[in-house]
Automatic annotation (TrEMBL):
Residues 5-127 form the VOC domain. It holds the Pfam family Glyoxalase. This is VOC family protein. Transmembrane segments: none annotated. InterPro entries: Glyas_Bleomycin-R_OHBP_Dase (IPR029068), Glyas_Fos-R_dOase_dom (IPR004360), VOC_core (IPR037523). The lineage of its organism: Bacteria, Bacillati, Bacillota, Bacilli, Bacillales.
């Protein structure tokens, strides 16, 4: 069976140059005219200039969700998640969800979320304490 090598999310943005700078300088992506990717396409986006600002449409919260997510990325361990949080905060990321912990019978989940200049939410989470 054929396998998909990677995927990217398409983002309509109000200001392409501003979005490219954010994804490069804050999120740490390699940015070209076509892509904004990091970690060998583990996190990938295709940024596209919107025709009109009102065409930019981040997700609304789902049922029971206080912070809506447009992207959810997984990080291996809680300590790596904490390091990523510190790096993104130092680079000026707009934090919309500070690191929070959820405990369940299956383990401990930790996550946080940032928003890009257009309001798209990118969440990061980890289920491994170490």
């Amino acid at each position: 069976m054929e396998q998909v090598a990677f995927s990217v999310q398409v983002r309509l943005v109000a200001d392409l140059a501003r979005a490219q700078a954010y994804y490069r300088d804050v999120l740490g992506c390699e940015v070209t005219d076509w892509w904004a990717v990091r970690d060998d396409f583990a996190l990938g986006f295709k940024l596209m200039q919107a025709d009109r600002p009102e065409d930019v449409s981040p997700n609304r919260p789902g049922k029971g969700q206080s912070v809506p997510w447009d992207t959810y990325a997984y990080v291996d361990t809680h300590s790596e998640l904490d390091a990523l949080y510190r790096t993104l905060a130092e680079r000026g990321a707009r934090i919309i969800q500070t690191p929070s912990v959820t405990e369940a019978d299956w383990g401990v989940w930790k996550e946080f979320a940032i928003a890009d200049p257009d309001g798209y939410a990118i969440a990061f989470g980890s289920g491994k304490k170490e």
